[in-house]
Design a protein that fits this description.
heterodimer; A: about 325 residues; mainly alpha; two-stranded antiparallel ribbon; B: about 475 residues; 14 helices; disordered C terminus
Chain lengths: ~325, ~475
């Protein structure tokens, strides 16, 4: 029965789902870190931190899942992409170290809390920028010879990759702001709502700029997006983005609490779909397809059995964890 | 000068450095998670406040240890690709799925229930909270299972074939996962985690007994740690011996380096206690030896022949001085642990477990011994695997990423600076928590600190008398 299904495509979708899960889940808690300097020290910062403290670790595990899944299902892609993006990936890891330990350390060392708050914010910003740069560098294409990366170690740094880096940081901040609108009350919620409005404009601008630049990076993106008859289908994506952005703006102005966060998630989903349209079925755009990078069937099947059993269980207890800590959070939240 | 940086050496230094830092944390959190589960279980069944006090006391420390383990572990999961891309390409079909199983069965389980374990007592009640603690402990064990299977496969590969692209491919998953050295390594490492934790908990208990021998929580933790030590220290020596015999069978060169056997001994090999290995000359200088004892230990016969490194090409030799010394550090510390375990039984028999100050000072001094022994053991087994990443099949020099020296030098420098800063601060916070005596109604928050913001250790914000009694 398995022979009727292309396992390589199945695995491409599983890994894509893991990466999307990471982007939206760690996205909002990285966003809180990015916004941290704009929050007042004391109650506001403590509340924002408490709103993500019980879940950030699980969110970040999706990053390990994305990396581990790539290693398992597409080892060639893992072996080509990571050396090519050496500097941004190391920077991301170091950023995540600072922000990860800050969750604990700021409570343990009140004398240096301000310093750990800076570490939390800087670590979050660096991680977000590095992730965006990684994505941008992948989109603009990397040099491959044989089964290895063959470019220089600054190839990842171009105006386009910087644009994607900043765009992702702005978009994460939007997710973080809408999360705070949903989870907090009073002046903090008010501040988050104002921030979210500005960040909506920033995010839509960023999506527009990256979308406008992408088709000109490689000829195949242009064909995909802008030539007949593809354009009839692909044009739906920017239309939906425009609709979602409008809805986000209206709900933020209108006083809704949950809708902005959910719509912001939708914006991420649409952008991710756009990314998929650009690169599928390549895993290293323009260089390596998913079939060239795929692990042998024996590896795919072995892991698929575990994934089929374990991922539903993971989703269940992740949902349970979110449910336990549902509702409004304040400084009294975790008695 | 930058042109002379050898990217291979730098990549090895970086992997060794980041792994050496990382291994400390999961080793401690495997042991602490189990200890916390036992404490909470005892509290639920007996209702004695001292167990909840100890639970809260160690939970605060666990939170920091676990956090540092997560962030340093994230680095490891990406470093295979960033710095060892050829290795990743070739072994991915075999090792990748096992690591993905670790993520799915262990990391998510730990992370998913850690939030409830740290913050959820009030929200879910004692029984569900205990279930969450058990899940976290189970997760740490699953993690050890998979990652040790991966490491063991690199030491004693089995169940594989190769494809035209030069990759290892799985032929028999059972043989891959349960490769020849895996059961031995798993037992040895899990016992090491328990031993390390027992020594650390025992040292904290001893420290507080030296100040106040009537502190009930200090007495309980010390007694529990010494019981653990009394069972695990001897068991670990037996497990280590079995692991050594397994290594002799599958990786004889490693044992030759551990023993310092450059020459072959056709009629009984001596046990080299100490000496200065000279890799160039292929000899141990100033060797202090016991004749024929090594043959007795390894072959169970005084006159059994043992081959030496001279029977292998020099390019296949591991770096003998490193392996020789790290092995002696590990074994020496193991013997001291056994001594402490025996003394604890004697003190208990004499009824002086809580009053014998010199013994407490010894237990206190042994606090870091487990961590040092774990590091020494890993150096022995990993450096002893050289010059291979996959023993006998893939050489280390053929495994690294095509990176330039300065790139790796820059990242290594960043790791060294940041690890020493961040993890030194974390260690300082842990030591500060340990320096405070455990109290009845342990809250764990400093006077004057904003209790309501103690989100990170909400146990501290719980009124111990009214809300945390077991419902049974």
């Amino acid at each position: 029965m398995l022979h009727n299904i292309d396992l390589t495509v199945v695995w491409a979708f599983i890994i894509a789902a893991a990466i999307l899960s990471y982007i939206i889940m760690d996205g909002f808690d990285l966003g809180i870190g990015i916004l941290f300097p704009t929050l007042k020290p004391g109650t506001d910062r403590d509340t924002a931190m408490n709103s993500i403290a019980p879940v950030w670790d699980g969110n970040e595990t999706w990053l390990v899942m994305g990396g581990g899944g790539l290693f398992a299902a597409f080892p060639l892609a893992y072996a080509v992409i990571l050396p090519a993006l050496y500097a941004p990936i190391i920077a991301m890891l170091l950023g995540l170290i600072f922000r990860g330990v800050a969750f604990e350390f700021r409570w343990r060392d009140p004398g240096h809390r301000a310093a750990w708050d800076v570490a939390f914010a800087v670590g979050s910003v660096v991680a977000a920028l590095a992730q965006g740069i990684t994505l941008g560098a992948l989109l603009q294409g990397i040099t491959v010879e044989g089964r290895a990366y063959a470019g220089g170690w600054w190839d990842w740094l171009t105006p386009f990759t910087l644009l994607v880096g900043v765009s992702l940081a702005v978009a994460y901040a939007l997710l973080g702001a809408t999360w705070l609108v949903m989870r907090t009350e009073g002046t903090l919620q008010l501040q988050a709502r104002r921030l979210a409005q500005r960040l909506t404009i920033g995010t839509v601008t960023a999506i527009a700029l990256v979308s406008a630049a992408t088709p000109f990076l490689q000829g195949r993106y242009f064909t995909r997006w802008l030539e007949m008859p593809n354009v009839l289908v692909t044009a739906q994506v920017p239309l939906l983005v425009a609709l979602a952005a409008y809805a986000l703006w209206r709900t933020l102005r209108g006083g809704a609490e949950r809708a902005p966060f959910l719509i912001a998630l939708g914006l991420f989903g649409l952008s991710f779909l756009g990314l998929g349209i650009s690169i599928f079925p390549d895993v290293v755009p323009g260089r390596i397809t998913i079939w060239q990078a795929a692990a042998p069937e024996a590896s795919q099947i072995f892991l698929l059995v575990g994934a089929a059993v374990l991922i539903p269980i993971i989703l269940t207890y992740t949902a349970y964890s979110y449910w336990v800590f549902r509702g409004k959070v304040d400084t009294h939240g975790y008695h | 000068m930058l042109a002379y940086l050898d990217p291979l050496i730098l990549a090895r230094a970086q992997f060794g450095f980041t792994l050496g830092f990382h291994i400390i944390f999961p080793c401690f959190s495997i042991g602490l998670a189990s200890y916390l589960a036992v404490l909470e279980g005892l509290w639920l069944t007996t209702g004695r406040q001292v167990f909840m006090d100890l639970f809260r006391y160690w939970l605060k420390i666990f939170a920091i240890v676990f956090g540092m383990g997560v962030v340093s572990g994230l680095v490891m999961s990406y470093q295979f690709g960033t710095n060892w891309s050829v290795f990743s390409d070739k072994t991915g079909p075999v090792l990748g799925p096992m690591m993905a199983y670790e993520v799915m069965s262990a990391f998510f389980l730990e992370a998913g229930f850690l939030g409830v374990m740290l913050f959820g007592m009030r929200k879910v009640g004692p029984r569900l909270h205990f279930a969450a603690t058990l899940m976290v402990a189970l997760g740490t064990f699953f993690s050890a299972f998979w990652i040790l299977s991966v490491n063991s496969w690199m030491q004693t590969p089995a169940g594989y074939g190769t494809n035209p692209q030069g990759q290892f491919i799985p032929l028999d998953w059972w043989a891959v996962v349960f490769n020849p050295s895996f059961p031995f390594r798993l037992v040895h490492m899990v016992l090491a985690a328990y031993l390390t934790t027992a020594l650390a908990v025992g040292a904290v208990g001893a420290w507080h007994l030296l100040r106040d021998r009537t502190n009930p929580a200090a007495r309980t933790m010390f007694s529990m740690a010494m019981w653990m030590l009394a069972f695990v220290a001897p068991a670990q020596i037996l497990a280590g011996d079995a692991h050594g015999l397994n290594t002799l069978e599958h990786q004889p060169a490693k044992v030759m380096a551990m023993e310092g056997h450059f020459q072959s001994h056709p009629d009984g090999a001596p046990l080299v206690l100490f000496g200065l290995p000279d890799q160039e000359a292929g000899t141990i200088r100033y060797a202090l030896e016991i004749p024929k004892l090594s043959s007795l230990v390894l072959k169970h016969a005084f006159d059994a022949p043992l081959a030496g490194l001279e029977t292998l090409p020099r390019k296949d030799w591991p770096p003998v001085p490193v392996v020789f010394w790290s092995f002696r550090v590990m074994v020496g510390l193991g013997m001291l642990m056994l001594l402490l375990a025996c003394l604890s039984l004697f003190a208990r028999y004499k009824g002086r477990l809580y009053t014998w100050a010199p013994f407490h000072r010894f237990a206190f001094a042994m606090g870091p011994a487990g961590f040092v022994a774990v590091l020494a053991g890993w150096v022995t087994t990993e450096v002893g695997r050289q010059p291979y990443t996959v023993f006998g099949l893939l050489r280390t020099e053929d495994s690294a990423s095509p990176l330039q020296g300065p790139a790796v030098a820059a990242s290594l420098t960043a790791f060294v600076v940041i690890y020493f800063t961040v993890f030194a601060m974390g260690t300082l916070y842990i030591l500060r928590l340990m320096a405070k005596p455990p109290q009845s109604g342990e809250t764990g928050i400093e006077p004057g600190a904003p209790i309501r913001t103690a989100g990170i250790t909400p146990a501290s914000a719980i009124d111990p008398d009214r809300h945390l009694q077991p419902t049974a």
